[in-house]
Specification:
There is one protein chain. The protein folds into two domains: 86 residues, Rossmann fold (3-Layer(aba) Sandwich), CATH 3.40.50.20; 111 residues, 3 Solenoid (UDP N-Acetylglucosamine Acyltransferase, domain 1), CATH 2.160.10. Helix content is 19%, strand content 26%. It contains four helices and 22 strands. β3 and β4 form a beta hairpin. It starts with a strand and ends with a helix.
Length: 227
């Protein structure tokens, strides 16, 4: 018998979570939950939209589980806050882990994670609670992903890397082995990290150099590679 699922959120991430949980076909989605002050309609995706103040009155912790589907707003702090609120109220928080991946140890992944397709997650990797990992990443052996982190697409995390709490990794980030990324850091799109990063840092890549077609250097480079 499928367990009944409530999803916290009513925006794009919730729509995506709905798509993937329906594909997994393990849970019946019974409704969507928001804080009371954000309720401005009765339903979302043809299911009830429920004020959080009503949840424990009508939806028991034994019959219902939760998934908090919130993005990286407030640098992942909002998702952390709602995750802790739901957990403290006694609900089980379930993860979505797409089966179209190579994952060495599912048991090493925490609760309320949202892990999409085409991952390579190597042996001895530990992933904390409430982590979002978008499509198509490599997480090298022996690495640690801290609670409430957010990993975008096509990120390469080499072996024995430590990603701390609430870190955001942008698309096409690459991290050298044995690096430690301090909590609340923001690694922007395309950055190459080759050393430890202090807590709260922002890491940005050097912008690409663009040579216009009439530039002599552009013509020489094209001639070298293509002719």
């Amino acid at each position: 018998m499928k367990k009944k699922l409530l999803i916290f959120g009513s925006h794009e991430i919730s729509e995506l979570a709905t798509f993937y949980f329906k594909k997994e076909n393990k849970y019946n989605i019974e409704g969507y939950v928001l804080d009371d002050e954000y309720i401005d309609k009765d339903s979302f995706l043809d299911k009830p939209l429920i004020p959080y103040s009503e949840v424990k009155k009508k939806y028991s912790t034994t019959d219902f589980c939760f998934h908090v589907a919130i993005s990286f707003k407030q640098h992942n702090q909002l998702r952390e806050k709602k995750y802790k609120q739901v957990k403290n109220d006694g609900y089980d928080l379930i993860s979505y882990i797409d089966p179209n991946s190579v994952i060495s140890d599912i048991e090493s992944i925490g609760e309320n994670c949202f892990i999409l397709e085409n991952q390579t997650i190597q042996p001895n990797v530990k992933i904390g609670d409430n982590v979002v990992i978008w499509s198509g990443n490599h997480i090298g052996h022996g690495s640690l992903i801290g609670n409430h982190a957010y990993i975008s697409s096509h990120v390469v995390i080499s072996g024995h890397v430590e990603i701390s709490e609430r870190v955001f990794l942008g698309v096409n980030t690459a991290i050298k082995d044995f690096c430690k990324i301090g909590k609340d850091s923001f690694i922007t799109m395309g950055a190459n990290v080759t050393k430890d990063i202090n807590e709260g840092s922002v890491v940005m890549p050097t912008s690409s150099i663009i040579l216009e077609k009439d530039d002599k250097r552009a013509r020489l480079i094209k001639k070298k590679y293509f002719f």
